[in-house]
Amino acid sequence: MTHPPDAQVQPSTEVTFRVIPGAGDHVLGTYVEEHWLPVIGPTCYLLARHVATEGADGLDVTFTYGYFAAALGVSPTKVCNAIRRLGRFGLIEHEADVILVRDGWPAPPARKVW
């Protein structure tokens, strides 16, 4: 997951996810939808929900960027950007070649008032 920001991600590139326990509200719950969606955006939110649904019971799930792009209606590069954004908020981590997705999310950060 070390693609440069402007790199073209190949749709056939595989990415493996593992759902891990996290403190807070479950990613499939309405609290996360109501409070995190405006912070992280729809692509990140839908990607995390999709992984949490498919990777239940601690199974590793492997998808291609093209699969996610088609499922979410975005380009493979947008999927890569969404993974990076989830990492910036601490909602995913990297462990070797696996991306760990938390199923419980904390309260979102306070919004800045502009």
Q: Which SSEs are present, and which pair or pack?
A:
Blueprint lengths: L13 E7 L4 E2 L3 H11 L1 H13 L5 E5 H8 L3 H13 L3 E4 L2 E5 L1 E2 L9
Parallel strand pairs: 1-5
Antiparallel strand pairs: 1-3, 2-6, 4-5
Helix pairs in contact: 1-2, 2-4, 3-4
Structure description:
It is globular, with a radius of gyration of 14 Å. The protein has four helices and six strands. The chain has a domain at 21-88. With 114 residues, the chain is α+β, with helices and mostly antiparallel strands.
Relevant terms:
4-stranded mixed sheet, disordered N terminus, alpha+beta, globular, single chain, two-stranded antiparallel sheet, 6 strands, 39% helix, 114 residues
Strand content: 15-25%
Helicity level, as a percent range?
25-40%
- Order of strands in the sheet with most strands: 3-1-5-4
Q: Which shape, going by the Cα principal axes?
A: globular
Largest sheet: 4 strands, mixed
Distance separating the two termini? 33 Å
Q: Could you give the order of the helices and strands?
A: EEHHEHHEEE
Number of helices: 4
What structural class results from the helix and strand content? alpha+beta
Computed over alpha carbons, the radius of gyration is 14 Å
DSSP E strands, number? 6
**Nearest-integer average pLDDT:** 86
* Poorly predicted regions: 1-5
